[in-house]
Structure prediction request, 498 residues.
Amino acid sequence: MFEPAPFVPTQFDKDNQLRTRMLITMLLLGSLYGVFIWFALASGLTIMLMVVVVMVLVQFLLSDRMVLSSMRAKVVTPAEAPGLHQIVDRLVLAAGIPKPKVAISDLPIPNAFATGRSQKHAAVAVTQMLMDVLDEDELEAVLAHEISHIKSKDVVVMTYASFFLIVAAMLSTYLMFSAMFGGMGRSRNGNSGSIILVALLVTFVVRIIGGMLVATLSRYREFSADRGATALTNRPMALASALQKLQGAIPKVPHQDLRKAEGMNAFFIMSAVGPGLAELFASHPSTAKRVARLQQYEQQAAFLR
Amino acid sequence: MCFFLKRAPAHATWGQAMLSMGGVAERLEKQLDTVTTREAAVLVRPTDDQSATQTRAEMERALTGMDRTLFRFDVTMDDSGYGWAIVKGAVLGDVAAGINQMGEVFTASGLGERVMAAIFPFMWHDSVHQRDHKIYWLYQPRVRGFTPFVPDGDPSNEQRDHDLEIRMETAIRRDLPTYRDTSEWYPIWGMPI
Prediction:
């Protein structure tokens, strides 16, 4: 029988070090984009820039439904998935945000995601497989992570963060085309060709550095959502155990009684040196890092329970 | 599982382990609400040709070396013919000191290699779910560290609450030499304590 944990506002709501890092990353990204826009305007690419910006904007406005359908996720009603809705209801109440659409995907992978350009247009989706693999505590923890993405407007932040990255990508494609096909006609001018080359170079640099910054920011958002999930459920180890399960690294616990196992161990004396070998199959570093942090939260949470 | 091994597993000898168990009473009881049942046991394996009565007699002979004025103790046999030397005391520190001395007298009488574990039971009240859990800390000389064991529900079902074990281990690892590789977290079903 599953019972909800009461919502306890905790110190997990804030992590100033993480916030500072996010802010610095965003500032760097902002100045990079600033330079990029200044360059585009200064080198006479104004019209091209505006066309691309509008195109990307339209894409983002339509993205809600596109993301869901591309993940083969179907929005479900409370009658169709009462258990799932119940968990989401509880978390939304604790987080203080409007309830997002709830969707289930039939993709054959255990995964969950949140989408939507604002809290009002948000959706949270899980795959059927995720629900099969995780127990209720773990599912709640994963949903809390997604809800916390919605609460901190991560989709919006990441959308803005990657906006000019996509603009730069599209711009460089156009520039490449015009360098290849338009270059012939303007070769007499000479000046235009070199501007296109410089512009290409700048967009590439923006894409590389911007891509790194966006990825960094995204990793920070993940840590921050883990922290947010801890604040919502006060059960960091449920999320840790879900992460481990999803990664296939379920810690093995013996079921056999110590009194019987001891006799067996006498034959397999090598089992005493297990840890070294296990370390060779070290798991994905990011999950390890997330779990390590969750364990830190757990040490703090132990006092609050 | 490897993240549990990031820091080297803490190795502690019998004496060091019992000393730290005696020292964590404050942390366990005041901060983690896990209260000692005021008893603990040393689990001794029988030899292949030994009956339960013989094992018991051998253990009791060894225990005559114990200081009877400080500790109350008793020997019980389980269904598998294993001997349980149970110490009772007023506080966790006394119980741990008793287990420490038991280890010494068993070693002195040649039973040392047959000591499989020292077992410390605690009660923990889960205030969220309004449930009481029995939490066992097993010191296994083989891995030279403490491992947790939390049976879940009806003992005959042989289910364990692994989440709670991990939580307890995480909460206490700084103060108690725990063994973090979960593949050594053996259960003991149907304990007399």
